[in-house]
């Protein structure tokens, strides 16, 4: 018989798989309802996917880690031409 972790693995939800037991314990202790527990598990998965997307896009951009918006010198950008 498949366990919850197996289902989450099959659904490709690694963050949910890592946190569902800990959140279930918190839900029991804090008397959460099913919907609140499910919302927290899904929230963890969404946040992890968002962070993974950012990391993946930064890696694909091939920008050096020192390039950030904070150290962008706007004066070095080309002048805006007529549109």
Series of secondary-structure elements, N-terminal to C-terminal = HHH
Portion in beta strands: under 5%
Q: What oligomeric state best describes the polypeptide chains here?
A: single chain
What would the principal axes of the Cα set say about the shape?
Answer: elongated
> What low-confidence regions span 5 or more consecutive residues with pLDDT below 50?
none
Describe this structure in words.
This protein has 83 residues and is mainly alpha-helical. Helices cover 63% and strands 0% of the residues. The chain has helices at residues 4-10, 14-30, 34-61. Helix 1 (4-10) runs antiparallel to helix 2 and helix 2 packs antiparallel against helix 3 (34-61). The longest helix has 28 residues, at 34-61. The protein is elongated. The N and C termini lie far apart (64 Å).
In short:
The chain is mainly alpha-helical and 83 residues long.
What descriptive keywords fit this protein?
83 residues, 3 helices, mainly alpha
Write the layout of secondary structure elements.
Blueprint: H1 4-10, H2 14-30, H3 34-61
Helix pairs in contact: 1-2, 2-3
């Amino acid at each position: 018989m498949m366990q919850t972790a197996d289902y989450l693995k099959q659904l490709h939800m690694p963050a949910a798989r890592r946190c569902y037991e800990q959140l279930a314990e918190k839900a029991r202790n804090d008397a959460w309802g099913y919907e609140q527990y499910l919302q927290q598990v899904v929230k963890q998965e969404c946040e992890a996917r968002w962070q993974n997307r950012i990391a993946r896009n930064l890696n694909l951009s091939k920008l050096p880690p020192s390039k950030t918006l904070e150290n962008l010198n706007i004066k070095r950008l080309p002048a805006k031409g007529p549109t």
